[in-house]
Amino acid sequence: MKEELVPEILQELDPYKSMDPDNIHPRVLRRLADMVVTPLSIIFEKLWRSEDVPEDWKKANVNSICKKGLKENPGNYRPISLTSVPGKVIEGILQRAIRSQMKHMIGKSQHGFTKGNSCFTNLMDCLLQQCNLLG
């Protein structure tokens, strides 16, 4: 587990997001990144070697928020899932590790697997190619 990824991912945490089930606010971890990097890295390394994740990190508090319209209408609400911030950090580390190991296997047309692209951009690219072939 690379310790230098931890402060990078901590700085990417959105300080305006809600607290997680552990009652740790992302803003706190972001501001204290220099002080918590080493302990978090040690914890992540031990978890990596044990191949186990704490149950608390797997749990999520699901709440509903009103997305638009009248609050009395249940159809105007959408669910949000509040998960553990340390769990999100280790998830980001694993995601980057997998991407770096697989980047030579992923083609330019596989947008959903490349940073900054999505399945939507893949669809748009495909449609543009079809239009070029037809026209």
Describe the structure.
The chain is mainly α and about 140 residues long. It has two domains: about 100 residues, no CATH class; about 30 residues. The chain is about 50% helix and about 10% strand. The chain is built from six helices and two strands, in the order ααααββαα. A two-stranded antiparallel sheet has the order 1-2. Helix 1 crosses helix 5. The chain is flat. The protein starts with a helix and ends with a helix. The model has no long low-confidence stretch (mean pLDDT about 80).
Features:
mainly alpha, 2 domains, 6 helices, 2 strands, 10% strand
Q: Note the beta-strand portion.
A: 5-15%
- Output the number of helix runs: 6
Rg over C-alpha atoms, rounded to the nearest angstrom = 19 Å
How many separate structural domains? 2
How many DSSP-defined strands? 2
Largest sheet, strands/sense/barrel: 2 strands, antiparallel
Inertia-based shape = flat
Mean pLDDT: 78
Share in helix: 40-55%
Category by helix and strand content: mainly alpha
Q: What distance separates the N and C termini? A: 50 Å
Order of SSEs: HHHHEEHH
Going across the major beta sheet, what is the strand order? 1-2
Uncertain runs: none
Condensed summary:
The chain is mainly alpha-helical and 135 residues long.
Annotate the secondary structure layout:
Blueprint: H1 5-11, H2 26-31, H3 33-50, H4 55-58, E1 60-66, E2 77-83, H5 85-102, H6 119-134
Antiparallel strand pairs: 1-2
